[in-house]
Amino acid sequence: MEFLKSICKGAVIGIANIIPGVSGGTMAVSMGIYDRLIHCITHLFKEFKKSVGFLIPIVIGAGIALIASSFGLEYLFVNYPVPTNLLFVGLILGGLPAVAKKVKGNKLKAGHIVACLLFFAFVVVLAAIGEREGTQADLSFNFLHVLLLFMIGIIASATMVVPGVSGSMILLLLGYYHPIIENINAFIRALTAFDVDGILKGFGVLVPFGIGVVVGIFAIAKLIEIIFVKFPLYAFWAIIGLIVASPIAIVLMNLGSFAGVSVLAVVASVITLPLGFFIAMKLGE
Question: Is the model's pTM score more than 0.70?
Answer without folding.
Answer: no
